[in-house]
């Protein structure tokens, strides 16, 4: 499954929100330096979708706020679990 989302690093709390346009926006605590936010993003998605971290790969946008993830072992209906 490919998942496109927007990431907001250095947020006061970690959460996922479904925006009005259908985009999933992830708020992370970590700053966008030294790959900290990407590491936290993978951990967050792994916990929410109950898939191993090794199943998640950032395929586009490693240095951008808009990212595309490839997640092996997750089905599209699992996306609702991100914002729950």
Q: The CATH topology is what?
A: Conserved Hypothetical Protein Mth637, Chain: A
Please name the CATH architecture.
2-Layer Sandwich
Sequence of secondary-structure elements = EEEHEE
What share of the residues lie within helices? 10-25%
CATH homology superfamily: YggU-like
Question: What is the tally of helical segments?
Answer: 1
Give the biggest sheet: 5 strands, mixed
Task: Label this structure with key terms.
Conserved Hypothetical Protein Mth637, Chain: A; 17% helix; 84 residues; globular; alpha+beta; five-stranded mixed β-sheet
Quick recap of the structure?
The chain has 84 residues and is of the alpha+beta class. It contains 1 helix and 5 strands, in the order βββαββ.
Protein model, in words:
The protein is of the alpha+beta class and 84 residues long. The protein has one helix and five strands. It has one helix at 36-49; strands at residues 2-8, 15-18, 24-27, 56-60, 66-71. The radius of gyration is 12 Å and the shape is globular.
Topology (elements, then pairings):
Elements: E1 2-8, E2 15-18, E3 24-27, H1 36-49, E4 56-60, E5 66-71
Parallel strand pairs: 1-3
Antiparallel strand pairs: 1-5, 2-3, 4-5
């Amino acid at each position: 499954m490919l998942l496109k989302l927007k990431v907001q690093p250095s947020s006061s709390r970690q959460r996922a929100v479904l925006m009005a346009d259908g985009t999933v926006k992830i708020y992370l605590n970590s700053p966008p330096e030294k790959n900290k936010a990407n590491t936290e993003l993978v951990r967050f998605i792994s916990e929410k979708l109950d898939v191993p971290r090794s199943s998640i790969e950032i395929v586009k946008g490693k240095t951008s706020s808009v990212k595309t993830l490839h997640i092996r072992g997750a089905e599209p209906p699992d996306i609702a679990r991100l914002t729950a």
